[in-house]
Amino acid sequence: MKTTLVNQILAEPLRHLPIDQLFSGCLAQNPRTQRELFDRLYPKMLGICLRYIKDSAAAEDVLLEAFRKVFCRIGQFRQSGSFEGWIRRIVVNECLMHLEKESQWKKDSDLERINAAANQAGPEDFLYWEDLINTMQLLPAGYRKVFELFVLEGLSHEEIGKQLCISENTSKSQLSRARVQLQRLLRFQHFEN
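Given the sequence above, the corresponding C-alpha cells read:
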C-alpha cells in the first residue's frame, strides 16, 4: 500500500500536493519530493530562524542543519499531528541549540590563550596582535570560535566540527565568512587611522 501511495505521489505534480502528503515521498527518500518540501518550507522556516538568530548567514546554516535532521529522522514522524508542525519543532529546537552554544562561547572566551600567544610575539608584532584580538571580538561568536580554533589552535575542520557539534562544512563556511569579515573590519580600522 505504501508503494502505491509513493508511486501515486511521484506521478502527480508535487507543487499541488499539501505538505502532509509529501511525507510518503520523503520517507521513501525520493530526492524530487525532498526538494519540493525544502523549496516550499524554506522561506517560512527561515523566517522562524531569523526570529531567533539575527545573523542571516548563521540562521541559514541552522536551517540547513535542521532540514538535514528532518530528512535523516523522517522515520521518527508518527503522523499523529501535522508534518509541517513536526518540521517546525525541529527548526525551533535547532535554533535554541545554536543560541545555547553561542552563549557558551561568549562565557568560554579564549581571550587569555590568545593573549598568551600574542605575548610570545616580538615587540614589533604587539600592536598587530592587539589590533587583531580587539577586531576578533567584533566577529559573531560562531565565526570567532571557529576562527580561533582553526587559526590559533591549529585544529582541522573535522576536529572543530566534533568539538562544537557542527558539520565540517559549517566549520569551513564560518571560517571563510570570519576571514572576510575580519579583513573588512581591519581595512575599515586602517582607513579610520
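DSSP finds ten helices and no strands in the chain. Try to locate this feature in the C-alpha cell string yourself.
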